[in-house]
Design brief:
It is globular, with a radius of gyration of 13 Å. The protein has four helices and five strands, in the order E-E-E-E-H-E-H-H-H. Helix content is 33%, strand content 18%.
Length: 144
């Protein structure tokens, strides 16, 4: 287990209302400077490459929704729980659509109303996060 958390000024780090910090990133971009995650979830259509930290793969094709929504809810719940004590990241290819959607779902788990979660992530992470209408709808329904 990682003994320290992200710096909230770090690249791609989103501070949730509870104070939990989660890093979002695009795997097509270089790994940000600084410490590595202790746990990561990769939101990709195909299995990600090996990494030297604990990681899980959630099958989630580009511009789409998770292939298994019940599993997605469980995995995002684990991300939220672990973010209280570990450096956790979520990442997809570009770091906006799937990653933004996952971050918005984490915001919902953290108490942000589902109808406000996309705006919360766009303000705190990336103004173009959550790219498609069905990703926005997924976030709105995540709270139910």
């Amino acid at each position: 287990m990682t003994t320290s958390l992200w710096q909230d000024t770090g690249t791609g780090v989103l501070r949730l209302p509870s104070g939990r910090l989660v890093r979002g990133r695009g795997l097509r971009h270089p790994l940000p400077q600084g410490p590595a995650p202790g746990f990561a979830v990769y939101l990709l259509g195909k299995e990600p490459p090996e990494v030297p930290w604990e990681a899980r793969w959630l099958r989630w094709p580009d511009f789409r929704l998770p292939a298994d929504r019940a599993l997605a809810r469980d995995v995002l719940g684990e991300v939220w729980e672990r973010a209280a004590a570990e450096r956790v990241e979520v990442a997809c290819g570009g770091g906006r659509g799937r990653t933004g959607t996952a971050l918005a779902c984490l915001a919902v788990l953290d108490g942000v109303p589902a109808a406000e979660a996309v705006d919360f992530v766009r303000r705190g992470y990336d103004r173009r996060a959550v790219e498609t209408p069905w990703q926005r709808r997924y976030v709105r329904r995540f709270g139910h």
